[in-house]
Amino acid sequence: MTFLSMFDDQELDDIRQQQTEWEENTLEPTLEAHGERKDRFGTVSNHEVDRLYTPDDIADVDFDEDIGFPGEPPYTRGPYPTMYRGRTWTMRQFAGFGTAEETNERFHYLIDEGQTGLSTAFDMPSLMGLDSDHRMSEGEVGKEGVAVDTLRDMEILFDGIDIGEVSTSFTINPSAAVIYAMYIALADQQGVPREEIRGTLQNDMLKEFIAQREWVIPPEPSLDIVTDTIEFAVDETPKFHPVSISGYHIREAGSTAVQEAAFTLADGFAYVEDCLDRGLDVDEFGPQLSFFFNCHNSIFEEIAKFRASRRVYARVMEEWYDAEKPESKRMKFHTQTAGQSLTAQQPLNNIARVTIQALAAVFGGTQSLHTNSFDEALALPSEKAVRVALRTQQIISEESGAADIVDPMGGSFAIEKLTNELEAEIMAYLEEIREMGDGSIRDGVLEGIDRGYFHREIGEASYEYQQRVERGEEVVVGVNEFTIEEDTSPDILEVDETTRDRQLDRLEHVKDERDDAEVDATLEALSDAIENDENVMPSIIDAVKAYATMGEIMQVFEDHHGAYQENITPV
Amino acid sequence: MSTEMGQQSIRCMVAKVGLDGHDRGAHVVSRAFRDAGFEVIYSGLHKAPEEIVQAAVQEDVDVLGISILSGAHDTLIPKIMDGLEEYGAKADTLVLAGGVIPEEDREELKAAGVAAIFGPGTSIEETVEFVRENAPDR
Q: What secondary structure does DSSP assign to A112-159, as a single string?
């Protein structure tokens, strides 16, 4: 294969010569007279950046192999040939609305407004696989999202909505298989063929152990359930994304941009390896995998992160896992702006931060985007703040021109150089993780969780950042510089105190009405399936149809595998 | 155990209550307390109020820092305060709260006995200083 350099050797020599002259004649006198603001310039992840980038920095870039064209491997420039000129990214705002009835009302409103993508936020007990009447659920029922105990709640949630017509995103993890089963049960009730249902289940358990920290059973059996859902989705719901491999939470836990990309890709490859071990075909399940990233303030680093991630994914899927179909090598992802970058001080400043981050995500080629609300560091977002967040995306899409050129930053000396640097650092982490697993990324990730490797790596980055802020090396506007005296009391979103009582009444009512013998029989069958290493999805579907509760179903898994106890490393 | 300086170090427990898994702040504060020379015990995640009370009493801590970002602070923190009271530990434990706690809810928590509430953007130094100045004498 020929090396398609972007500059010939003679030109590069000339440029180097000119740069030396510029440094001597133009730069030096200025540096001597005024100096620079800092000795060292770095991103929010403390990745050092140079003063200036020139063709010399990307002399070893092969245009065809490294950059190429959008819609073609290695997809550095984007997964699709026309990107936002064809259709802008999906503006998918995620929010919780208390009870199933209220969320249902909201869904109807959104559908009437022409939206076809629904997004469901669950309350903490549902996320942790606990029923609303569990001791640990007190104070948390219906807060920040809808409570789902049984299929009855899902029936109310989707009442009057044809689930063959909408695409639904479920942000849920340890109990994701139960929600997936309930959605399939709903399709069966409505007479919608299973192969027609569309949506995304977050269902990324590995990142839970690494960062978000919602779990029920230990990592290895948790991974088994994820693989069961992928296998089931390939067979029965091909338009449904069974897992959204997520770096968002890893970044929110304080990781660097490189760690976010590297650990997320490692999780993705761990799922790939687990599926391959089951005998699944990479070109069958590969296209159903999708990703979810964070976008922080350092614009150039973020753009480089997205471009490098796509390139690494394409290369590794092909070289390590023998993917052949383009769809198996093409990384698609959702992005959310960085919640942890928002400040409680001078909250309106957050609109500027979110705009910068959203713009970086668009330059980076995201397929969908959630922009945070400016008041999120203070309380649950107000309606006004949610609207401004959505309008920010619309202004970028409609007014800025950012959506009109495919990969507009491609070819920038700085961006291409940073993309190369991040790719190399991501690969170094992947190799290290593979080493930990004796040649297996899957085993390396499990080992890393067990040893506290990820926790330590992220914790150090997070603490190091906090120290830079304290030393004033990182300026956070309104926090350690440009501060004012102010009253930031937000408009408080009223949480209905009767939510819990209504939910408990409904749960009790369902339990009174259902056939307990049938519930016991289906839970017994699930237990047998776990015992015999069978795919658990069919048994969970039977159990939810018998109105077994989420807590009862998760308890069967806990009975087999035990509750996960974090191996807490002393700080 | 004797210390050559003749001064016992401050015993702190950093606790996560309820189902909320946001533990970045708890870990940063734990490390900062350790770097400041305090003894630090971390509760681990997903603890019920009574579990935290029992651990704090058993470990005989001077300072209990409760981290919560889920919005359930108004239910869970008063339960911890009641529990400490029950064990007669409320008077000699400095209780701090950290996380996303709206201004409106703070008076009530302070009335329940929380000494200080540290919101997002609080500097580590400020928190450490507060503990140094206000930790109960042993």
A: HTT--EEEEEB-HHHHTT--TTSGGGTTTTTSSSB---SHHHHHHHTT
Q: Are A290 and A403 found together in one domain?
A: yes
User: Is any Cβ of chain B less than 8 angstroms from the Cβ of A119?
Assistant: no
| A253·B21 Cβ contact <8 A | no
Q: Do A70 and A135 have their domain in common? A: no
Tell me the pLDDT tens digit for each residue of A477-492: 999 999 999 877 655 5
| Structural domain contains residue A51 | no
pLDDT tens track for A359-382 = 999 999 999 999 999 998 887 778
Q: How many Å apart are CA A114 and CA A93, to the nearest integer? A: 14
Asked whether residue A431 is assigned to any structural domain, the reply reads: yes
Chain A residue with the nearest C-alpha to that of B103: A489
Residue partners of A563: CB distance under 8 A and separation at least 6: A216, A217
ipTM of the complex as predicted: 0.76
3-state secondary structure labels for all residues of B79-97? HHHHHHHHCCCCCCCEEEE
Q: Which amino acid is located at A121 in the chain?
A: A
**Would A229 be classed as within a structural domain?**
no
Using a CB–CB cutoff of 8 Å, tell me whether A174 touches chain B.
no
A470 to B124: CB separation less than 8 angstroms, yes or no: yes
Which of A470, A490, A511 is the C-terminal boundary of a domain?
A470
Q: Tell me the nearest-neighbour CA distance from A101 into chain B, angstroms.
A: 21
Provide mean pLDDT across the span B28-37: 93
Structure letter (DSSP) for residue A494: P
pLDDT at site A503: 93
Other Cβ atoms within 10 Å of B54 Cβ, number? 14
Q: Domain B16-134 carries which CATH code?
A: 3.40.50.280
**Which of these, A290, A206, A207, lies nearest to A244 by C-alpha position?**
A290
Among B13, B14, B19, B82, the strongest candidate for a mutation testing the A interface, having the largest count of A CBs within 10 A, is B19
Nearest Cα neighbor of A284 from A333, A235, A247 is A235
Question: Could you tell me if residue A167 is inside a domain?
Answer: yes
Number of alpha helices (DSSP H) and beta strands (DSSP E) in chain A: 22, 9
B26 CA to chain A: closest CA distance, Å? 10
Q: How confident is the model at residue B6 (pLDDT cuts 50, 70, 90)?
A: very low
Q: Could you give the number of structural domains in chain A?
A: 2
CATH of the domain at A287: 3.20.20.240
Residues A254 and A464: their CA atoms lie apart, in Å, by: 10
CB B33 within 8 A of CB B40: yes
Residue numbers of A between 447 and 476 with CB closer than 8 Å to B:
459, 462-463, 466-467, 469-470, 476
Tell me the domain boundaries of chain B.
16-134
